[in-house]
Amino acid sequence: MSEKKYRIESVLAQIGSIEEPVTGAVNYPIYQATAFRHPRLGQSTGFDYSRTKSPTRAVLEEAAAALEAGDAGFACSSGMAALQTVFTLFASGDHLIVSLDLYGGTYRLLERVLSKYGVTASYVDTNDLSALEEARQPNTKAVFIETPTNPLMMVTDIRAVSQWARDHGLVTIVDNTLLTPFFQRPIELGADIVVHSATKYLGGHNDVLAGLIVSKGKELSEEIAFLHNSIGAVLGPTDSYQLMRGMKTLALRMERHQSNALAIAKHLQNHPQVTEVFYPGLPDHPGYEIQNAQSSGNTGIFSFRVSDARYVEPVLRHLKLIAFAESLGGVESLMTYPAVQTHADIPAHVRDAVGVDDRLLRFSVGIEHVDDLIQDLDQALEAARAEVEGGSKNE
Ligand SMILES: *Cc1c(COP(=O)(O)O)cnc(C)c1O
């Protein structure tokens, strides 16, 4: 099947359905082999040793490259493994410009691991070209963007930043975990590399840990292929299969995640115990216009601030349908408290500067019925209010 001819829903549904030549199996099988027999000296089936290339993983990698409009795809053992592989493009003395409101694990990798190898990073509002210009140093090699950011959902103009980066000979890397290629394709907007925590929406079921890299251009793709094999943080055959299984329903899931998230974000905007809702699908969000211009839809997560930090603990305790857990992007709804969970590794002063404070909750909206989710949130907020007010009266 040529992916160019079909719309993305069809490409997704047919991942791996097309290439198994021996039996015609509709789903590409799990090749649980690490070594591959050579026909004779100097010949290869195309597979030698599975760290370098493995059949099931190769089908996933090809699909990833096609979906993200890139030239090559690489499947890694986690999103962090994908990030580590990409950051290894850089050498001691190199400098990166990075989105300010960043996934905590990426910040930790840069500040506590990459820093040991002499790679430095400046954190700026990547939607402010003058801030980018100010952060640029003679040794700057790349710009790393998350858009929208997690948890504050700040939107960066990928086209504008990629253009600026190209003008200065810098590589643009986009973490596209939150929107997936179903809603946003950064390479089409000018980026050079896309990374994913495929653990999130691509896998979609909170049951497989995986990362993906997609690159544009022959030279860059060859360099990443070399690093992917040399570092070896590759995805196993069974996980590759499971990820493809999840990706087949990506279109349906993203549409439901989006509609649920928008309805609940609107509901919470009018809730007396909520002061702010951060969701780029809301017309009053500062990134609304850019988001609409560069993406065909919105993610299923948003953050909100409750009016009193004392509500947080009882809200998390009283939720019934929504689980109090970190992670995002699965069919099951999860509520996270970023300041103590996902973003705990970011120093308090940095968290405060971006607004990840003690009143902020992040909601990864699942595909349950929207009315059940709203009911669960409402009862938890009400129970929290009753506890906090009861407590104050007793003081
Ligand atoms: C989860 C996440 C990561 C890390 O991915 P893992 O699969 O957990 O290693 C990176 N970036 C973003 C935006 C994430 O949400």
From TrEMBL:
Sequence positions bearing N6-(pyridoxal phosphate)lysine: 200
Pfam families in alphabetical order:
Cys_Met_Meta_PP
The cellular component terms of Gene Ontology attached to this UniProt record, alphabetical and capped at eight, are: cytoplasm
Q: Which domain of life is it from?
A: Bacteria
Kindly indicate where the leader peptide sits in this chain.
Answer: none
The answer to whether UniProt assigns keyword 4Fe-4S to this entry is no
Q: Which cofactor does it need?
A: pyridoxal 5'-phosphate
Q: Quick one: a GO biological-process term for this protein?
A: transsulfuration
Molecular function via GO: carbon-sulfur lyase activity; pyridoxal phosphate binding; transaminase activity
Keywords of the record, alphabetical order, are: Aminotransferase, Coiled coil, Pyridoxal phosphate, Transferase
PROSITE patterns according to UniProt: CYS_MET_METAB_PP
Q: What is this protein called?
A: Aminotransferase class I/II-fold pyridoxal phosphate-dependent enzyme
